Amino acid sequence: MPAVNANGANTVYVRFLPTEIGSAMGAIAIQNALTTNVDVTLIGNGLPVTHNYVTFNQQPLAFGSGYSQSAVQTFNLPSDLSNIAQIKMFLQIDCPSSGCDDWDRFANVKVKDVESGNWYEIGRYITPYWTGTQQLDRGLEFDVTDFKSLLTGAVELRIYIENWTDKADLITVDFDYIEGTPDYPYYAVSEVLGYHINSIDGVPYGVPHSFDLDKSVSIPANAESTHLRTVISGWGHATPADGSRPCAEWCYRTHNVLINGSGMFSHYMGPLGCAANPVSNQNPGNWQPDRAGWCPGMAVPARIDAFGSSMAGSAFTFAYDFEDWTNDGNNGGAFYATSTYVVVKSTTPITKPTVAD
């Protein structure tokens, strides 16, 4: 400060670095024997160190006119996750000059499990009508920490939209690797149910079918935490309807997860508040009425079911039990695209759970 301004009114900015994550407060005193002391209150918010990785960037997905509904690429992601507490995935939909697809479409992001060669669904969403997700600063957000054992090193990713028009959606996917102390240093994940190709490739509802919903799962002996992660969304306008709610897009249902033959977890396919979606520029699309467990222009929620014990060294049977209902065949089929994963964690290196038919 120039001496000539020393006795005038001056604004002094104080920059400080919080030592912990979260809200931080402090105080400093500016003292001088020749004038009144000044007390400064410090208020700030400590943020964790975050490393961002962009994968797909403005990748067009459509059908016809040289487009494809899917894209696959390999990306280099961090090789050392020892100080990564959380991984978030963001997906932004932008529109070309011709505009985005008119309809709400089933869409997802998958990572390849190198050991099995299978594609694991790490995030599912329904596209908005007519528009992208630009009303959200970073697009749709997904917590994909459960898949951290696969999101390291050279990683093959696949994006897909069930878009049957040549009006492309432009997809950008990026990941935040957030520093901190992990709940457990070692993770492993196995697929239990993998019916997530598209909306009508899911489990047929209300009719006899041959889809295998019964599995045997064995947990490693050193597991210290075990949980299930399920993503489910319904499609179709099959009848009889519950009032004006045909199945499985609209009909509210409660489905059960049976462990060793008994109901342990339940999944309520109910309203999510579609009319409150911040992606609100979807007119003239029918985006505001509540679907059963999903909304146009939103991520389909992951349903986390944690076991009360570590389940270490145990084996159990798993069955997905859909609420009873019979399709009368008068208005097409009903389908549930369903993915379930079993995630184990440990303080020592851990192998994947074994899943058998």
Automatic annotation (TrEMBL):
Highest taxon in the source lineage = Bacteria
Q: Which Pfam families match?
A: N-glycanase_C
UniProt GO molecular function: oxidoreductase activity, acting on paired donors, with incorporation or reduction of molecular oxygen, reduced ascorbate as one donor, and incorporation of one atom of oxygen
Peptide-N-glycosidase F N-terminal domain boundaries: 56-177
User: What are the record keywords, sorted?
Assistant: Disulfide bond
Which protein are we looking at? Peptidase
Say which species the protein is native to. Answer: Mangrovimonas yunxiaonensis
Taxonomic lineage: Bacteria, Pseudomonadati, Bacteroidota, Flavobacteriia, Flavobacteriales
